[in-house]
Amino acid sequence: MGPGMGPETLSDRVPIMRMGEDLLITLQGDLDDLTVESIERGVTSEVARMRACGALIDISGLDVVDSFVAGALGRLVQMIRLLGAEAAIVGIRPAVAITLVQLGVSLPGVTTALNAEQGMARLRRTRVNGNTGVRP
Amino acid sequence: MTTTTVVIGGESDLLRVRSTMREYARHAGLSLTATTKVVTAGSELTRNILRYATGGQGVASIEEAASGQRRGVRAVFADQGPGIADLDQAMCSGFSMAGGLGLGLPGSRRLVDEFAIDSAPGHGTRVAICQWDH
């Protein structure tokens, strides 16, 4: 995914893989403000450039998700949807799910799945059912 | 008892707070869930310091806690920031002074076994949390 990713080392920290018509974005390590911003820029430009139909955000590599990261995830999903693609978050760890609910974070309307495979299947089912609307 | 102190000046210190808390939690034998919760709380409180405290300056002091048969991890987050004018309001979910989700303080309190906060305008803020192994 070298070309079009810009001079940042985003692709090193946040691998974005194309899988057919969809993108798989893998978040890992600890996310600070600058990383989140460059993720938002990188993902939105990739979705638009690849004319992706769907994007999976894999957070199985995050063992801690605080309210800041949760907010960033929610906004990322919104951005992807504004571009006409579907988005889903996959790989939420059980301990993270417990913590997020207790923290009071809800991700309303955000599609989730246990892993990338199930996430892809859900995205495709959504497409077949015609929920994503017409893409230009 | 050893205490590890992390001066919170920038984002990289957030990582250090988390890894330090994780290590103390592991040493105290906390479960994965208890560890995730207390490290998340620590992350929230550290971000508060970065976001609100003057120049992002604050200190996290992390140590192992012991009480009878119980072991745990205790962390104190102190800063010389502006202090909180209305503590009740700040402890309400959804209230944020900086466009955040407003969950940091009340959320952290829910995640840990013990939570104490001291804050007043002009006197900075001090939050102490403790998570036990059982």
How would you sum up this structure in a few lines?
The complex is a heterodimer of chains A (136) and B (134). Chain A has 136 residues and is of the alpha/beta class.
What are the salient characteristics of this protein?
heterodimer; A: 136 residues; alpha/beta; Transcription Regulator spoIIAA; five-stranded mixed beta sheet; globular; disordered N terminus; B: 134 residues; alpha+beta; Heat Shock Protein 90; five-stranded antiparallel beta sheet; 4 helices; 5 strands; 30% strand
Describe this structure in words.
The complex is a heterodimer of chains A (136) and B (134). Chain A has 136 residues and is α/β, with parallel strands linked by helices. Chain A has a single domain, classed as STAS domain (Transcription Regulator spoIIAA). Chain A has five helices and five strands; from the N terminus they run αββαβαβαβα. Chain A has a five-stranded mixed β-sheet with strand order 1-2-3-4-5, sandwiched between helices. The two termini of chain A are 24 Å apart. The relative contact order of chain A is 0.15. Chain B is of the alpha+beta class and 134 residues long. Chain B has one domain: Heat Shock Protein 90 (2-Layer Sandwich). Chain B contains four helices and five strands; from the N terminus they run E-H-H-E-E-H-H-E-E. In chain B, helix 1 packs antiparallel against helix 2 and helix 2 packs antiparallel against helix 4. Chain B is globular. The model of chain B has no long low-confidence stretch (mean pLDDT 91). Chains A and B meet through helix 3 and helix 4 of A and helix 1, helix 2 and helix 4 of B.
Element pattern of chain B in H and E: EHHEEHHEE
What spatial form of chain B do the alpha-carbon principal axes imply? globular
Strand percentage of chain B lies at: 25-35%
Query: Which segments of chain A are poorly predicted (pLDDT under 50) over 5 or more consecutive residues?
Result: 1-9
Tell me roughly what share of residues is in helical segments of chain B. Answer: 25-40%
By CATH's scheme, which homologous superfamily of chain A applies? STAS domain
Strand order of the largest sheet of chain A: 1-2-3-4-5
Helices and strands of chain B: which structural class? Answer: alpha+beta
At CATH level 3, the topology of chain A is Transcription Regulator spoIIAA
